[in-house]
Amino acid sequence: MSKLVFITGVSSGIGLHATRSLINKGYTVIGSVRNAVTATSLKQELGSSFIPLVFDVRDRQETELQIGTLRSLLDQSGLYALVNNAGVVAAGPLQVLPDEDFETVMDVNVLAVRRVTNLLLPWLGTDKKYSPGKIINISSVSGLFNAPYNGAYCISKHALESMTDIYRRELSMFGITVTAIEPGPIKSEIWSKSKGSLDRFASTAYGHLLANADKMIENSEKSALDTAVISNLIIRILEADAPQTRYLVHRNKWMFRILANWMPDKMADRLIAKTLAKGDNYRPV
Ligand SMILES: NC(=O)c1ccc[n+]([C@@H]2O[C@H](COP(=O)([O-])OP(=O)(O)OC[C@H]3O[C@@H](n4cnc5c(N)ncnc54)[C@H](OP(=O)(O)O)[C@@H]3O)[C@@H](O)[C@H]2O)c1
Prior knowledge:
Elements: E1 4-7, H1 13-24, E2 28-33, H2 36-46, E3 50-54, H3 60-68, H4 71-77, E4 81-84, H5 99-126, E5 134-138, H6 151-171, E6 177-183, H7 190-194, H8 207-210, H9 213-222, H10 227-239, E7 246-249, H11 253-262, H12 265-278
Parallel strand pairs: 1-2, 1-4, 2-3, 4-5, 5-6, 6-7
Helix pairs in contact: 1-10, 3-5, 5-6
NADP nicotinamide-adenine-dinucleotide phosphate is lined by residues 9-15, 32, 34, 56-58, 85-88, 108, 138, 140, 183, 185-186, 188-190, 193, 224, 285.
């Protein structure tokens, strides 16, 4: 049996591309999707190197049940790596974003990552029967920088950054490595899913600022990098003896670092306000 990699959220975008790339490289991928039709069509396309599991990461019981169905395979092979990829966006100003949307983002992007990770940890090497594995969390530049009108997502990805550091420090005694990938815009379905999502705030105090949101999202999407960039990086991490703790993936890394790390807060506030006032660029991920 080839090396087993577990990836959450493989129905589209980064997860789907990574699944195809890893299988091409000889890995076996256990991929989670949310519906059975997607599972069947991916199985038909990808064959015996793909093992689909159908569950919604928000559903604790179903997550446990579905992972449990692979117990004998995992007991036999252990798990080479886990890629926590499933993620959602709910854009909107914090004061008017419905609680339900905020909580969904926290559940999928944060709470579920811990649930899935903890369930799989024995086979990643907390059980000393298995060789130490690798955990890769698909974070975001939004885990490093807080953009207005995208609060839920930014807060969730900041939490994921913390979780990455904490797991890394707690799991180093088992030899398990934990790495965050922090992408800027990447071409995926997440952009089309975001379109139209800000219209519902038209009658709020932010209506005038968000009036062109779709156009702004489209403009930001134009600078998005291909999903292959992330798949190649995942493969590099899987093949590295000692991967870095985090990888920033951005067209203009240095400009981003200046803005996120070194620019004084009030200067960054003015810059963001000026950029958003122009109404030509808005990044929901
Ligand atoms: N694209 C970017 O520009 C970008 C930038 C930075 C970080 N990221 C991160 O990259 C990761 C992948 O996103 P993507 O860009 O590839 O977007 P995507 O194409 O929308 O993929 C998101 C995946 O997550 C799955 N998912 C969402 N909610 C789920 C749930 N409750 N249970 C199980 N699976 C669920 C989706 O499944 P369904 O099809 O069933 O919804 C889909 O497979 C996310 O963590 C995202 O935050 C993306």
